[in-house]
Design brief:
With about 675 residues, the chain is an alpha/beta fold. The protein contains 25 helices and 23 strands. A hairpin with a 5-residue loop joins strand 20 and strand 21. The N and C termini lie far apart (about 65 Å).
């Protein structure tokens, strides 16, 4: 952002409550705007000229400049960059807060980056967000559920707080819809107050975009070959390569192939060294940091990424972008309760975002692995997440914020009515809301946890069954993405040929086996080698311990005592069932499982301890934490249960189908 933009920003913000900033990728919105606001000294109650040498000494009671990001990675990386630019330690003047991690100071932090979910949790305790003088909503075009809820809440807050300033940033935003959404009617016949709009253009270098002549049969092969061609065609030229793929599995597959290629060309003196780096949300911070490091002029970096690189993560030195044209999105079917992860074409907005990653430091090139005719057929924008996702967490959150009648809450896009009705029914069955739709005492407690309400129900119920500690461990396991290490390519693909791992498995299924893994890890002094020998991700185990500890602290703060089952497995199973009873399935005579409610065929995920069992050895009844619908609907995190437990714990949920199901032989 140039000086002219800085002056315009401060002028427009002084005269307007809401400012929409539209700027191209790389224009500096995410980092420069918080810095400008801080140095102006207006919105953090620092009215004197800022003396960099005395920042810490001058910090006193102040309001915050808050910046929300859709992803954890963006929040942490941007906070680090702004802290570096302002020459202050991370966690002092500049901090960040993401799920289960808070690197900020109540006393010192004045610029706080955070995920959108964290800001929503703050609203439960501070509905008007009185700690904040400015809130900047970054990457608003993504239209996550949390983005839409925050925008709706801020619309209400601006009507009650005259001093708060709202900045909404995006590279590809439906500006007209947002202006209409935030327009205020002063009175019936008076003028309207509309948001101001600041457009930032900062592209210095042209970008050439190429499309394939025809649709490609395998974009993974084409992406690999394109990287090879670029690397060999521009032998000594500067510039790195960014490849967009749809998911972690594709990223790892392409990285393996490109690493093999890089190894075979190491002896060629006419080529630069090719460094291949993955980028996806499951990576640890130290791996993500490598993407932003300077690897020297004698190397060319190829970053293979999911759509995470479309967002606020600005990677320097990218000259070529390879765009596969697809993205994985979750779509929820309220009738079956199944959330499917589907590979769909990207939108025109996403294609522009991807292309915008090239040409920041020199002329850019974009290679789209699809014809131009296909680009023209793309939707302008993706379907908002609120219209394709389960709504249980959203409804509980809104009700905890005081919106008893959800119809009164302002939204850019409405929640699908059928999905909303199904959600209210499911919340009623777990006693989160009463028959009038109001939050129960238990529902208000559930709202304190940043979790699926079913998991919150498990935590709350665990006190009465005497296994709080074990349920915290299990819930923590359900928060980590990669519990197991993938076997090397030259070895068997099944986890369960590992005898050391198989010994930790129990007949009760995955969730009880997780407890055995954690206990074994602890009894062996948290040995990384012990975990790796059993093909278990030791980093995941450490994350589980950290998350479980924080959950236990939350429970204590809520007045719930921490209890230990002391090996009573059935007690733990019943506590899990108290929250997940809706996710029950029975073994069909043909050998597959079918959900008890809905009669949908579901399958055992390959990472489950039940995956290697024959149909005769599988349990008759199971519950699962989630359905992952990729090639087919897979149950994940499965646990065996008894038929009688379902009727004892959830008669209100199954009573209408009991007689029919019994006659069909399902019970």
């Amino acid at each position: 952002m140039v000086d002219r933009h800085e002056r315009e920003l401060l002028y427009l913000l002084e005269r307007n409550k809401v400012l929409v900033v539209v700027g191209e990728t790389g224009s500096g919105k995410s980092t420069r705007i918080p810095e400008i606001l801080f140095k102006a000294g207006i919105y953090n109650q620092e009215n004197d000229v800022i003396d960099e040498s005395s920042w810490l000494a001058k910090c006193h009671k102040h309001q915050l400049i808050g910046v929300t990001e859709p992803r954890r990675v963006a929040a942490t990386q941007l906070a680090q960059r702004v802290a570096s630019n302002l020459k202050c330690p991370l966690g002092s003047i500049v901090g960040y807060a993401i799920r289960f991690e808070d690197v900020s100071s109540t006393e010192h932090t004045q610029i706080k980056f955070m995920t959108e979910g964290l800001l929503l949790r703050e609203m439960i305790h501070d509905p008007l967000l009185n700690r904040y003088s400015v809130l900047m909503i970054d990457e608003a075009h993504e239209r996550n559920i949390n983005t839409d809820i925050i925008l709706g809440a801020l619309k209400s807050i601006t009507q009650k707080r005259s001093d708060i300033k709202i900045i909404i940033c995006s590279a590809t935003l439906e500006v007209g819809a947002l202006i209409h959404f935030f327009t205020e009617e002063i009175n019936d016949n008076g003028p309207r107050r509309t948001p101001a709009v600041l457009s930032i253009t900062n592209r210095s270098y042209p970008v050439e975009i190429y499309h394939t002549e025809n649709s490609v049969s395998n974009y993974l092969d084409t992406a690999v070959n394109t990287v090879k061609d670029l690397h060999e065609s521009y032998r000594l030229a500067t510039g790195n390569i960014l490849v967009f793929l749809t998911g972690q599995d594709e990223v790892e597959h392409v990285c393996e192939r490109l690493n093999d290629y890089a190894y075979t060309i190491e002896s060629r003196l006419d080529l630069k060294k090719l460094i291949v780096l993955p980028l996806h949300s499951s990576l640890k911070q130290e791996m993500i940091s490598k993407v932003f490091e300077d690897h020297g002029k004698k190397s060319r970096v190829c970053i293979v990424s999911t759509n995470i690189a479309e967002m606020s993560l600005t990677i320097e030195g990218i000259s070529s972008v390879i765009d596969c044209g697809f993205v994985k999105l979750k779509f929820y079917d309220h009738k079956t309760g199944i959330e499917s992860l589907l590979k769909v074409p990207i939108s025109k907005g996403a294609a522009k975002q991807r292309a915008g990653r090239a040409g920041r430091t020199g002329k850019g090139f974009v290679y789209r692995l699809y014809p131009y005719d296909e680009y023209l057929k793309l939707d302008d924008h993706s379907v908002p997440e609120i219209q394709r996702s389960p709504l249980a967490e959203t409804v509980i959150l809104l009700k905890s914020l005081g919106y008893a009648d959800l119809n009164t809450f302002p939204l850019l896009s409405p929640m699908p009515r059928a999905n909303l009705c199904a959600t209210l029914e499911s919340l009623y069955t777990i006693n989160a809301i009463d028959d009038t739709g109001k939050l129960t005492k238990e529902g208000r407690l559930m709202a304190q946890f940043n979790l699926n309400p079913q998991l919150s129900k498990m935590l709350i119920s665990s006190e009465s069954t005497g296994c709080t500690k074990e349920i915290c461990h299990i819930v923590a396991f359900l928060q980590v993405k990669e519990i197991y290490l993938k076997p090397p390519r030259h070895k068997a693909t099944s986890l369960w040929v590992n005898e050391n791992l198989a010994r930790l498995c129990t007949a009760e299924g995955d969730m009880i086996s997780y407890l055995n893994m954690l206990n074994g890890f602890l009894s062996n002094h948290s040995s990384d080698k012990w975990a790796e020998k059993r093909c278990i991700n030791h980093r995941a185990l450490r994350d589980v311990l950290e998350i479980s500890g924080k959950l236990q602290s939350q429970l204590k703060n809520s007045g719930i005592s921490i209890t230990d089952a002391r090996g009573r497995t059935e007690t733990v199973q019943k506590a899990v069932l108290s929250g997940l009873y809706a996710n029950a399935a029975y073994l069909h005579p043909y050998g597959d499982y079918k959900t008890i409610r809905g009669d949908q065929t579901v399958y055992i995920h390959p990472t489950s301890v039940f995956s290697e069992l024959s149909a005769d050895d599988r349990p008759k009844y199971v519950i699962f934490a989630e359905i992952l619908n990729t090639t087919k609907p897979y149950m994940r995190h499965i646990m065996s249960i008894e038929r009688d437990w379902l009727l004892a714990i959830a008669p209100h949920y199954y009573r209408f189908g009991t007689e029919i199901d019994t006659s069909r032989g399902r019970y």
